[in-house]
Amino acid sequence: MILKIVFALSFCLISTTNECFAQPNSFVYPPSEEAWSKPKIFTPVSDSFGVVYSSYVRADGKQLFFQTGSKLYMVEKTDTGWTKPKKLNNYINSGLIREHAISPDGKLLFYIRFSNGWFLFCNYWDENTNDWGPSIKSNINNFASAIGEPFFINDTTLIVGSSGSSRITTYDSIRKVWRELRYFPQRASTFPTSNGFTLMPDLKNYMGNLRNTKSISGYFDVDDDISVTDFDSANQFYNYPPNTLSFCLDSDSLYFEHLYGGREERYPTITADGRTIYFTANYVDKWKPNIYVSYRTQDDVVHINELKDSKIDEYALHIYPNPFNSNVKITFNITETENVKISLYDVLGNEISTIFNGIIKSGIHELYFPQNQSISNLSSGIYFCRLESGQFISVKKLMLLK
């Protein structure tokens, strides 16, 4: 589902649609049409910390900041993998810390710290010391009694949650200060926030946190699930209900072991390419949330075309041209509406790319790979295209020549 809203601050949220996964019937809220992989625990952090309460990824995906034990830490992605967690300096960790946000350029850190009340503080990156400079109590605490999680739209635009709603501020480059928090130009634009929220970098999707209630095996249960909300800009109100992301049960061992105490998926944060989402969840232990990571399994640029008159055998998979050096056309037939996954593998059996993963209706279809993308990251050689549909699997060999 989509957030479609125009702020009067030079950015616009528009709609899009993605293929969907199935969702159990026990959910009160319907599933989103966004396709994400099964979440996995983020071991660069979980190997060192058993409990993590919130996280925030830098736009380029190279740094992940997280809060545990009321202190802030970070891990950094290098050519050889993620570094070990590093505690931020005492300028920052001189008090109890809550939610936080790092600017896209990585030079400004906002966070909520206790100082006779909860207030927004910030630190600028010091190029001379190669570390964070002194803490500054932000001037945008004009709603201090209700300050919530911060989120960067860009380096000079910040959204701050507050009492279940959100407010916005921008940086005044003339006065060199952040303007006071204010409501959005249209009050209907103010979306509710609780336990984290994020906007897709292209400003198409608003992801937050909603509360589902249901009964499992006779026990009343309350879940906090990652959700996607649609804003109707024409009628100026939220389309209700919001939609839960489809992966919320995928890693939930407590659910399948009937040890339910309430799922808590919170603090979603997404990289600038829109491909990776980090969030906290208590899938394994009710009292021990940690960071999980999921990847978008379908690109918006992949289009499935239904072919009306073509003759093709049941479940047949055809690839043309083969060998190829740019795009290839993948044609296939399925006999009933079901989930179809098409993946590319190398000769060692490693999955290189998920070309498509979603539910489509029966018939003959075609798609192109890679569409509007580059194959520069692929080496010349042999690859395998694998189609899974229900109990059927078909594999075709193809060769890339550069």
Structural description of this entry:
This protein is an all-beta fold and 402 residues long. It has 2 domains: 291 residues, Tachylectin-2, Chain A (5 Propeller), CATH 2.115.10; 96 residues, Macroglobulin (MG2) domain (Immunoglobulin-like), CATH 2.60.40.1930. Helix content is 2%, strand content 47%. The chain has 2 helices and 32 strands. Strands 4, 5, 6, 7 and 8 form a 5-stranded antiparallel beta sheet that branches. A hairpin with a 4-residue loop joins β28 and β29. The longest helix has 4 residues. It is elongated. The N terminus is likely disordered.
Per-chain topology:
Layout: E1 5-7, E2 11-13, E3 40-41, H1 43-46, E4 54-57, E5 63-68, E6 71-78, E7 81-82, E8 86-87, E9 97-102, E10 108-114, E11 118-126, E12 131-132, E13 136-137, E14 147-154, E15 157-162, E16 165-172, E17 177-178, E18 198-199, E19 206-216, E20 219-232, E21 237-244, H2 253-256, E22 266-270, E23 276-281, E24 290-295, E25 305-307, E26 317-320, E27 328-334, E28 338-346, E29 351-360, E30 363-369, E31 381-389, E32 392-400
Please provide a brief summary of the model.
2% of the residues lie in helices and 47% in strands. The protein has 402 residues and is mainly beta.
Q: Per CATH, what is the topology of the largest domain?
A: Tachylectin-2, Chain A
The coarse overall form would be elongated
Separation, N- and C-terminal Cα atoms: 39 Å
- Going by helix content, strand content and strand pairing, the class is mainly beta
Overall mean pLDDT stands at: 74
Helix content: under 10%
